[in-house]
Amino acid sequence: MWILAAALLPLWSGVPSLAEPEPPNVLLIISDDQWWGDFGFMGSDDIATPHLDKLAKEGLVFPRGYVPTALCRASLATLVTGLYPHEHKITGNDPPKGVDRARMLAHIEAAVTVPELLGKAGYRSLQTGKWWEGECQCGGFTEGMTHGDPARGGRHGDVGLTIGRKTMKPALDFIDSCQEDETPFFLWYAPFLPHTPHNPPARLLEAYAQPGVPTPIAKYRAMCEWFDETCGTLLDHLDARGLSEDTLVVFVVDNGWIQRPNAKGYAPRSKRTPNEGGVRTPIVLRWPGRIAPARREVPVSSIDLAPTMLKACGVEVPGTWPGVDLRGDLSARGPLFGAAYTHDVVDLDNPASSLLTRWILRDPHKLLVHSDPKLPAELYDVRADPAEERPILDAATAASLRSELDRWWDGR
User: Whole-prediction pTM value?
Assistant: First the structure.
């Protein structure tokens, strides 16, 4: 009788299934050149970001996220490889003068990537927007918008850069196709937004072009709302297709940007620097019913996103990846590390040749160690002084942090 009961148990209504949940779809949203505070959910009263604010309200928010380096190509390579720039060896946007750009692709081709590993688990993947590593298949994507041919304007996204600015159709069609095929998907959404050129729609600029607001600031703020609108298009589409509860949405910024008030370009201590304005970013994870909405103040890194996504999808994480699963217990989270490099690579195979500054954050202290021996190390309490305007003198803390930083770097 017990054998019969056991056989019939799964057929009885009301008995919960012990089967593992289906692996989620993954939507990775990457903002391009945006300061960490320029979101409503991060405290901004100047910029409207209602769609990302809603995402944050429904998700797990890490307001003190970081990227290992504040330059887009290296930062994006970390997201796709799960490695620090000195490990994946992609440190700068452009090759040394006179070197063929195609030679830069060797490192991404040698790396194990998130879409490659997901592909082995049955996922389809689509690359849209910013992508520096040649054609999308170089990164393991099954499909993509970017061709990467320098002869046809390939550098950092080419045709892919039309996503968000001109069309959302490739991303929406991909979602629909995967749903119809009953295939899980990984969607890389990295629009050229709010990145320059700051040419927002007139309807948005009008709202920000107020008396006393410099025109470059108004244009940048309107670009941030434009980016938010495109995110809303994707998130609304998931809702309309009934896919929101089956999709892990991940949000991060590739690097910071502080708009200069009276001219084009970025201000000091933002993009390309190891300062908070360059490397800090909010990180958001939303998976309804699987990740509880919360706000956690522990510092985390974008290097944690690759293992977090893979583990959520039931895919084994390579043992060489240094990141942690952000859904787990972070009470013993170690320090964060990063580095700043030259915009153009000095030596394609030697990351140290392009190194400008290394940094470590052991909350609340952040130490910056510069390669130029004439520049002294800088120590800050970034909780009390997030603008890093007041260096502190604490020889013991600086020495302890320097020791940890050297161990991290020498482990390369």
Answer: 0.94
